[in-house]
Every structure is written in C-alpha cells, then in structure tokens.
Amino acid sequence: MSEHSTQLEAVAELRRARPRDRFLRVGLSCFALLLAASWFTGEFGIREFDWERRWANCERFLSRVVPFPMQEHPEASFAEKLGLAGGWLLDRWRESGAEAFRYTLGLSVVAIVFAGVASLVSLPLASRRLATASPLVPPHRELPAWQRWLWRLIGQGCRFLLVLARSVPEYMIAFFLVVALGFNAWPAVLALAIHNAGILGRLGSELVDNMPSAVPVSQRSLGAGRWQIYAFGAVPSLFSRFLIFFFYRWETCVRDATVLGMLGIPTLGYYLLEARAKDHLDEMLFFVALGSVTVLIGDLLSAFVRWRLERTS
Amino acid sequence: MGSRRMVLLLIGVAGFLAAWLIQLEPTQLFGKAQWHQLGVFFQAALSPALTYEDGAVVPEGLFLMEIAEALYKTLIYTAAAISLSLVGGLVFGFLGSAKAWLSLAAPGHVWGRALSAIALTGHFFVRTVMTVLRSVHEIVWAILFLQALGAENLAAVFAIAIPYSATLGKVFSELIDEAPRAAAGALRDNGASPVQVYVFGLLPAVIPDLLAYLLYRFECGLRSAAVLGFFGAPTLGSYLSLSWGERHYHEVWAYLYALLALIVAFDFWSGAVRRRLTVGLES
C-alpha cells in the first residue's frame, strides 16, 4: 500500500515537473478559442439553411453532370450507355482536353524550374550561417562595423523578402500580372515561381543551417569564401534533400496551375470556367476530373522520384 | 558525368521542353503598352489608401473599418474551415494509419482478427479517397459547391475543408506510422484494446508535430480563404477585386498589405510556437 502511494506521489511529482510554457498555453488556447468561436459568429447561417431547396438544387446538378449522350438516351442499356459515355469522353479529350492537359503540366514544370533556380541563388544570402560577415568561424581580425551591419542587413532583408514572396497567394500575383502580360503563360509562370521560390528558399536555407558543420568549417579554415562553401560543400551534400523539396513543390505547382487558368490562361481551369459559362455541366465535370487526374499523375511521378532519392540519400 | 549533373541537366532539359510546349517566349514579356498600367499599379504601392479613393461618394474614415472587416471575415472563414479539417484530418489520420495500430493489437484479442481485416481494407480505401479529395483544388471545390448548392457561405468553408482534411489526414497518418512504438507496445502487453493503444500510446507522441503542421495549414488556409473571395466568398479577395475593378489601386495595396501583415504575423507567431513545442520535446 505504501509502495503504491509513493508511486502515485512520484507520478504527481513528474506531473508537476512537466515542462510548462505560458506562451504556448495562452497562445494555443486563444487559437483553439478562435477555431470554436468562428462557428458562433452567425456568418454561416446553419439554422436558416434550407435543406429542401438545397437538395433539389443538388439533384438537378447531379442529373446534369452526366455525359450529355447519356442524358439524351435514358432508355439505353447499361452497355450502350457505357459506349456513349466513352465516345463522349474521347471527343472531349481530342477537342480540348489533351491540349489543356499538356499546357497545365508544361506550365507547372517551367514554373518550378524558375522557382528552383531563383531559390538556389537566394538561399546562401538567406542562410543564417552563411549570410554573416564571417561565416562559420570567428574572424582573424576585428571586422569593421559596417561589414557586420551590411551582412546582417542582407541576411534579414533576404529572409524577409522570402517571407513576403511566399505570403502573397499565387492566384493574386497572377491576377495582377495578367493585366500587363496578357493571357499567355507568363503571369502564371511568374506567380508560381515567385511563391515557390519563397518556400524553397526557406526550406533550403533551413537545410544549410542544420547541416553538420565538419565540411563547411574545414572548407572555411582552408580559406574558402561563402559562395565556395555553398557551391562545393553545401550543395553537393544537400542535393538530394533539396530535390525532394523541389519535387514536393512541383506537385503543388501542378495543382495550382490547373486553377490559374481561371484568369484566362489556357490551363484546365480556363476550359472548366468556359464549360460552366456555356452551362455544359457535364463538360465542366470532365475538366474537374481531368484536373484531378493531372494532379494524381504529378503526385505519382513526384512520389516515385522522392522514393528513389530517399533510398539513395 | 556525375549523377548530380545528370539530374540537373535533365531538369534543365525538361524546363526547356515544357517552355517550348506552352509556347513561352521572352518577347511576350516586353513591348506591351500595358506595362504602363502595371507601373501605375506598382507606384500605388508606395501610398496605400487610408480612406476611400472617391471620398466624395462615401463618408471618409470607414475604409479602415472595411479593411478590418475583410481581415475579420478571412480569419473567421479560415478558422471555421480549419476546425472542420482538424476533425476530418483526425478521422482520416486514424483510419489511414490503421496499419500502425493494428499491428500493435494484442494477438488473440477479442477484437483483433475481425477488426484488422476490416481496417486493412479500409486503410487502403481511405488513403485512395484522401488522394482523390486532395487532387481537386479548393477553388474547384468552391465552384462545384456553388453550382450544386447555390450561393452559400458554408460552401466556401467546405471547399477549403475537404482538400485540407485529406492533406491533414495524410500527414497525420504518416506521423503516426512513424511514431515511437515503445509506449504503445507496453500498453498492448497490459491488455489495452487497439483503440486505447492508439489514443494513449501513439497519439500523444505526435501531438507536437501534429500541432505544428496544423498551424502551417492554418497559414495556407488564410491564403486560400482570401483567394476564395474572388469566387463569391465574402473574404478579403472580394473586397480587393471590387477595388481593382474600379482601378482604385491605392485601396488594392491597402488590402494587400493588410493580408500580408496578417499572414506574416501569424507566421512569426506559429514559428515561435513550433520552436517551443520542439524544445519541450527535447527537455
């Protein structure tokens, strides 16, 4: 019995000694409160939700997303319907599906390559380790104050620019750029490149900041400059991990490229809105599905490459 | 040639091929008269509006309230969507990681066999469903809901919540699959049921990571909610596109700065939370 109570006492002791952090407690409580409170703002009108009318709407919608030939021949047998739907699908694919599919994938690849190049260049300037007046080792002599300040400015400035780049939604960047650049691929490419360069730059600079210091420090003591450390020490050893991020962001690029078409750039989203404007809901659903397939293909490719990379690294 | 160079070369070639495929030409970037309009727009960046640009029509001073309202709506929509996604993500994560916790079920336990058979088929099914839900963009979900339900504020919330639930579910289940198993194993050996093993043995270990990822998704949710304003939701995007349509570029920049401030502030806060969460783990 007494042994039991000392055990309980020990558990209570452990409980008292657990790490507690007021910042975390208050912050996360407020966050949880925000999540719960959002439902009591009256914004979403759950009470006045007219289920009956919504359901009728929904039924009408569902009857009209069925491929058109199938709607026209309700009396056809199942096999005939399948044939009709197949023919219709093939027509849609030949008409604009193939082109939209190609354009969406192509756009995402160009965008991620741009983003990759931009982030590789900006990364050493954003790294807390490299973007200092005397990277990795203390300076041999006292450095002039302006040099220390300059490098602090470069580092902080570059990190802040990366934060800005990834904070603006890519849809909004493209929305503004379309005005100047017209309805070609550039607005979407640049928007995706800017947003993803911000993300890759952050992920990459974290890699550089967390890599083991043996290689860069020895390079530094042999007299290498920060760009040499970066190009011949950091890049080779972090290469495959950076590629993993690169392919992970490419997936999201494919996903975002589909909807950037809604601004008038001929990716899948463009054709989707066009079908909706013509009130061809079956065709609209075709482009939703094709978009989904495109994203899945991107996911599979990227997952395969990342799996190979993770195995080798 | 080393394999790294080979990869870089391949990526470069893929980039050029893709550029050719979408007929991307550098000349499209230059010589457009419209650059002038973009120039005007970027000049407005230096002086974001503090009042309505056509002050004669509407009383002054209300514009800042409007910005506050735009931010408030964006925040509320994100919070509602993320709270739904958290529930959805936990359910998906639970079902999607069935493999991890069923392998821990005590051999010969009452539930053991039947449950593991159901759960293993369910596991595969759930992962497929998650992938498909995730593959449709939230804007596309929003358009589908608008078509199917008609204009409805809840539509925007669901549009975000569906793909986000699937993404959270995927990450949750991966975290749980990789969670340390010692505590779970000890619980199992003392006769805990699979669900008890899951809730008390596996889940606690991943809560910090799970929270960190949830906060990151909240930040993404802010962006998504703002953009859904272009598609009928009453969030920041709707205010911004109205001002843009009237060419009130100073107002546009005011909204943009407000959104950036919100996201950057949240980013700094969640960064601090993440650091403290991981420190708590190590100590």
Could you tell me how far the N terminus lies from the C terminus of chain A, measured between alpha carbons in angstroms? 55 Å
Oligomeric assembly = heterodimer
Sheet bearing the most strands of chain B, described?
none
Any idea what the radius of gyration of chain A is? 28 Å
Question: Could you give me the name of the CATH homologous superfamily of chain B?
Answer: MetI-like
Unreliable residue runs of chain B? none
Number of strands of chain A: 0
Please give a quick description of this structure.
Chain A is mainly alpha-helical. Chain A has helices at 2-16, 22-37, 51-64, 68-72, 78-126, 145-167, 170-181, 186-210, 214-221, 226-260, 268-277, 281-312.
Would you give an account of this structure?
In chain A, 78% of the residues lie in helices and 0% in strands. By secondary structure, chain A is mostly helical. Chain A has a single domain (92-312), classed as MetI-like fold, CATH 1.10.3720. The mean pLDDT of chain A is 89. Chain B is globular, with a radius of gyration of 25 Å. In chain B, 44% of the residues are buried. The mean pLDDT of chain B is 85. Chains A and B meet through helix 2, helix 3, helix 5, helix 6 and helix 7 of A and helix 1, helix 2, helix 3, helix 5 and helix 6 of B.
Question: What order do the helices and strands come in, and which of them pair?
Answer:
The complex is a heterodimer of chains A (313) and B (283).
Chain A: H1 2-16, H2 22-37, H3 51-64, H4 68-72, H5 78-126, H6 145-167, H7 170-181, H8 186-210, H9 214-221, H10 226-260, H11 268-277, H12 281-312
Chain B: H1 3-21, H2 35-43, H3 62-96, H4 98-102, H5 112-135, H6 138-149, H7 153-177, H8 182-189, H9 194-228, H10 236-245, H11 249-282
Helix pairs in contact in B: 3-7, 3-9, 3-10, 3-11, 5-7, 6-7, 7-9, 8-9, 9-11, 10-11
